[in-house]
Write a structure and sequence with these properties.
mainly alpha, 0% strand, 156 residues, globular
C-alpha cells in the first residue's frame, strides 16, 4: 500500500491592480506612440493598422487607436504579473516595467509582428526576426511609463 501526496500551487494574479495596469498601459502606449511617430511614422501609420486590415492607405490615427488598445491589454497582464510576484515598491515595479518592455519587444514586435504582417500581406512587413534597436527603445519607454504610472495609480 502506498500513499501519494500531491501539492498544488496556485498563483493569485487577482491581487494586481488592473485599473493601474490599464492606466499605465494607455499612458505608456501614448508616449511610445508619440516617439514612434517622431522617429518612424510608417510604423504607426501603416504597420500597426495593417495588423487588422486598417491600412493602407496610411492612417496614423487608427494606428494609434490599435496601439493604445494593445498597450491597455498588456498593462492588465503587467498588473497580473505585479500581483503574482507580489511587487509593490517603486523600484520593483519600474524594474518589472523595463523587463516587460523587453519581453514585449522580443515576443510581440520582433517575432510575432513580422509573421502577422506577412500573413495579412501588409506592405509594411519587416524581415523575420525584426530585432530593430529603435523598437527596443520604444518598448523600454513603454515599460518605464507603464511601471511609473502603475505606481502612482496603485498608491491612490
Amino acid at each position: 500500500m502506498s500513499t501519494n501526496t500531491s501539492t498544488t500551487r496556485h498563483a493569485d494574479v487577482s491581487i494586481g491592480n488592473w485599473k493601474a495596469g490599464v492606466g499605465g498601459g494607455i499612458a505608456g502606449a501614448l508616449v511610445m506612440g508619440a516617439l514612434v511617430l517622431a522617429m518612424n511614422p510608417p510604423t504607426l501609420a501603416v504597420a500597426i493598422p495593417s495588423l487588422y486590415a486598417l491600412a493602407p492607405p496610411p492612417n496614423p490615427g487608427l494606428g494609434m487607436v490599435v496601439h493604445v488598445s494593445h498597450g491597455a491589454i498588456l498593462g492588465v497582464v503587467f498588473a497580473g504579473l505585479a500581483g503574482a510576484f507580489d511587487l509593490d515598491s517603486t523600484g520593483e515595479l519600474l524594474g518589472l516595467g523595463v523587463a516587460w518592455g523587453v519581453v514585449t519587444w522580443v515576443g510581440l514586435a520582433a517575432l510575432l509582428m513580422p509573421v502577422w504582417l506577412s500573413a495579412v500581406g501588409s506592405p509594411a512587413s519587416p524581415p523575420f526576426p525584426n530585432f530593430a534597436i529603435p523598437s527596443l527603445l520604444w518598448h523600454l519607454v513603454y515599460g518605464v511609463v507603464l511601471g511609473g504610472v502603475y505606481v502612482v495609480v496603485d498608491a491612490s
